[in-house]
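User: I've been trying to design a sequence by hand for this structure and keep getting stuck. Would you show me what you'd pick, starting by listing the structure so we're on the same page?

Assistant: Good idea, let's start from the same input. This is the structure you sent:
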């Protein structure tokens, strides 16, 4: 089979790192990078560090509103798919690149394969939630990372197209863990000792685009018992700088770093006392590593992490974050996201489309 895979942002490079190798061993793949994340720190480093094949096509589409960006991607992808005539289009996750790839393929009657299908936060104000729902409903093959995701799709009448394969990010986490665990230089650069700091990330639109919420986020990061290490997403850096809050954070002792490569970030995650985040991927990676997570949102699509007691949803309530950090989770962490071989299951499912 010939597949066109559409990727565009940081977590999608990580997912492609798991899937592209085994996919290319069985099929032909053309990797299209939309350009949604174009900075070297969010893009090139993952391609180099994780061995993602160099994208064959770069669309260089970034910026603008979600609608405008998605529309520009669709306009660029339509002629590309018409020219390439793939047997299927593969998309990952919940970004504008995901929706653009899925919608363009569906409109051209090309089957869509969605990896990380069925995730729901049930918060439709999140742009990612709309992207997930719309992508799932125009996909032919829905490959789910967890039982909960599969049940969500069954509830929406999509069960016959859905399959539980496990989470491809677990494949990458397991493969990279030994190298990341040995990478103590990342802790030296941040100036912290193992087990004695909090690792924080924040970039959700709802937390950083609204100045009042950005101020609450800043207060929370200054209130929790540090040191706090904050590898800063460019979007968040820009918002903090224009609100004059970056200096406030740094003045208050928060160790602000540039966005990190996967091995440095994972080294800091594995050795953190806890993770403080609004990222989906970081919540799950903390769970996999047995590191407590405090999530700066009031919903999550990774609900198993909360039900097991390893993740607390505190929104931007500093007192709730401090209280959550005083708990030391010790319960079971069931293997709800697969066994680290999800990519092989993804490729097998794709191959079944040809049958
Ligand atoms: N990550 C990274 N460097 C960083 C921050 C995050 O490599 O400085 C990785 C992290 O390990 C996870 C992924 O990026 O695998 C999460 O991406 P992000 O938070 O951008 O997206 P989300 O998961 O919220 O969609």
């Amino acid at each position: 089979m010939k597949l066109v895979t559409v990727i565009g942002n940081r977590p999608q490079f990580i997912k492609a790192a798991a899937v592209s190798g085994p996919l290319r061993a069985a099929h032909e793949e053309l990797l299209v990078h939309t350009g949604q994340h174009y900075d070297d720190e969010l893009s090139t480093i993952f391609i180099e560090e994780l061995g993602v094949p160099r994208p064959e096509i770069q669309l260089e589409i970034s910026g603008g509103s979600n609608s405008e960006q998605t529309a520009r991607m669709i306009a660029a992808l339509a002629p590309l798919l018409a020219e390439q005539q793939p047997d299927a289009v593969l998309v990952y996750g919940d970004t504008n690149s995901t929706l653009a790839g899925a919608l363009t393929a569906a409109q051209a009657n090309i089957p869509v394969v969605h990896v990380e299908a069925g995730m729901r936060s049930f918060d439709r104000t999140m742009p990612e939630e709309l992207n997930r729902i719309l992508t799932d409903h125009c996909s032919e093959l829905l490959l789910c990372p967890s039982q909960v995701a599969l049940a969500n799709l069954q509830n929406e009448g999509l069960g016959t197209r859905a399959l539980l394969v496990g989470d491809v990010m677990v494949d990458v986490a397991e493969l990279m863990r030994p190298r990341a665990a040995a990478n103590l230089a990342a802790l030296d650069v941040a100036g912290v000792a193992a087990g004695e700091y909090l690792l924080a990330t924040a970039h959700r639109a709802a937390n950083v685009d609204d100045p009042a919420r950005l101020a609450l986020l800043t207060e929370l990061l200054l209130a929790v018992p540090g040191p706090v290490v904050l590898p800063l997403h460019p979007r968040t850096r820009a918002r903090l700088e224009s609100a004059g809050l970056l200096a406030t954070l740094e003045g208050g002792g928060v160790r602000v770093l540039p966005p990190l490569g996967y091995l440095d970030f994972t080294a800091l995650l594995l050795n953190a006392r806890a993770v403080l985040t609004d990222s989906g991927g970081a919540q799950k990676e903390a769970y996999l590593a047995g590191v407590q997570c405090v999530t700066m949102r009031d919903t999550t699509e990774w609900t198993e992490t909360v039900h097991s007691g390893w993740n607390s949803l505190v929104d931007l309530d500093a007192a709730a974050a401090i209280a959550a950090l005083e708990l030391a989770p010790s319960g079971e962490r069931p293997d709800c996201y697969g066994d680290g071989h999800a990519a092989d299951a993804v490729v097998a499912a794709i191959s079944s489309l040809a049958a």
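That's my pick for every position. To get oriented when you compare it with your attempt: The CA atoms of residues 5 and 90 lie 5 Å apart. The chain has two domains: 2-167+338-352, 175-325.
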